[in-house]
UniProtKB/TrEMBL annotation:
<dbReference type="InterPro" id="IPR040079">
    <property type="entry name" value="Glutathione_S-Trfase"/>
</dbReference>
<dbReference type="InterPro" id="IPR011767">
    <property type="entry name" value="GLR_AS"/>
</dbReference>
<protein>
    <submittedName>
        <fullName>Glutathione S-transferase N-terminal domain-containing protein</fullName>
    </submittedName>
</protein>
<dbReference type="Pfam" id="PF13417">
    <property type="entry name" value="GST_N_3"/>
</dbReference>
<feature type="domain" description="GST N-terminal">
    <location>
        <begin position="34"/>
        <end position="116"/>
    </location>
</feature>
<dbReference type="InterPro" id="IPR036249">
    <property type="entry name" value="Thioredoxin-like_sf"/>
</dbReference>
<feature type="domain" description="GST N-terminal">
    <location>
        <begin position="157"/>
        <end position="257"/>
    </location>
</feature>
<dbReference type="InterPro" id="IPR004045">
    <property type="entry name" value="Glutathione_S-Trfase_N"/>
</dbReference>
Amino acid sequence: MPNAAEVLLNSLGSTARGWRGTRVLTRQSTQPDKPLKLYDIEACPYCRLVREVLTELDLDVMILPCPKGGTRYRAEAQAIGGKQQFPLLVDDNTGTVMYESAAIIDYLAKTYRGRSRGANRWLRPVSEMSSSLASAFRLRPTGISGMRVRASTPPAGPLELFSFESSPYSMAVRARLCELELPYLLRNTGKGGWKDIGPPSFRDKLFKGPMDTTRNRAWLAEHTGRVQLPYLIDPNTGTQMYESADIIRYLDKTYAN
């Protein structure tokens, strides 16, 4: 579970990416009627590029984890797309099935009328290199966080996670969800402005700004009275909780074998 060293390494990874996937860059993106689906490996640098853009476009997505050694969604991805290559985007709103992070990023920006720095083609080689560097900070004594499968019991239905891509605490939870092959609806909760920067205890006391600066931040403020990430909802057990360490402990107790 995340400790100071884990959070530091995750922060260094986000720094290597210039904290991409932190802020919502557009408020005019069109929300799809049906959730997007992303067959994903948390530690994959190309998957990260797509998840960053999903945060910046303020788009929610159903994550179907496909860690190395996994059996729950890898065969399904191959049946849909013809190969086990990730990321794989499925958009049931348009009938689109798509590999390749660059193509997916272009598609998302064009289809959902959003603005994202990830759509800049000239910067893509740099983005791929820095995303690979960010993945290197996931190396732990036990292996790469969010890369390989752990035995688990599948949930009856998907979980929900409020998160934004560069959040060091959210990253630890997403890694465990991936390792356990637990599907979840990723509620992207990017920051809406500079007053959202910093931990809640510091931010709320210093700036006293509105908590509803983006769509999902408004939901958290209304339903929980605060905005802090990550926030997990498990409809299978009725569990709703903050704090990354508590969430990881809960996931291991409830689903890990």
